[in-house]
Amino acid sequence: MKKRAVIVIDLQNEYLPSGKLPLSGIEAASANAAKVIADARSKGFPVVHVRHEFANSEAPVFVPGTNGVEIQPTVAPHGDEPIIVKNHINAFRGTDLKQQLEARGVEEVVVVGAMSHMCVDAGVRAAADMGYGVTVLHDACATLDLEFGGVTVPAAQVHATMMAAFAFGYATVKSTGEYLAA
Q: Is 142 helix (H, G, I), strand (E, B) or coil?
């Protein structure tokens, strides 16, 4: 079996209903992510946490030093689990995420987190491009409604589109239940 790691992308307080950028279904996604994290810990798989912060305090969200940038308590790191702080959408850009995975001999990653259409998307595609086998747990990820050209796209459709794109060419997409049962 290939060495696996769970990458938890941006499950931060900013995305909760009390945050500045609440996501549709974030609490259910975080609860599922917590199950995946617990499973990984019980099996000795590495868990790597990614936390988004903007480089300056003038950003409208993810302001350094605020409660919004903190990782949600339900998925908080334990022990020596690494926390990768990123300033860009892609968790690999400008960070040591790849080096952290290499140091642990990781060959495949399981991705959970937020937002499906942004940071999860960038991380999944980058991991696949780097040669990692990638699994995305669709019900452990969340996003929000988007708007373009006067058309509002509901979060469920944004999310389904991203998962379909992953499944088409970048990742295996499963539910948390399917993953944990395997």
A: strand
The rounded distance, in Å, linking the Cα atoms of 132 and 116 is: 19
Alpha helices in 85-175 (DSSP H): 97-103, 121-129, 155-169
Apex 71 CA angle, 66 and 76, nearest 5: 140
* CA atoms 169, 174, 176, 178: torsion sign: negative
Specify whether the CB–CB gap between 135 and 172 falls below 8 A: yes
Structural domain boundaries, residue 159: 4-181
The whole-number pLDDT of residue 138 equals 98
pTM: predicted TM-score of the whole model, two decimal places: 0.97
Token reading at 61: 């969200």
Give the count of domains, the chain.
Answer: 1
Summarised one tens digit per residue, pLDDT across range 68-91 is 999 999 999 999 999 999 999 999
| Residues 172/128, Cβ–Cβ less than 8 Å | no
Q: What is the CATH number of the domain that holds 56?
A: 3.40.50.850
Q: How many CB atoms lie within 10 A of CB 101?
A: 23
Task: Give the count of alpha carbons within 13 A of 70, CB side only.
Answer: 10
pLDDT digits (tens, 9 = 90+) for 90-136: 999 999 999 999 999 999 999 999 999 999 999 999 999 999 999 99
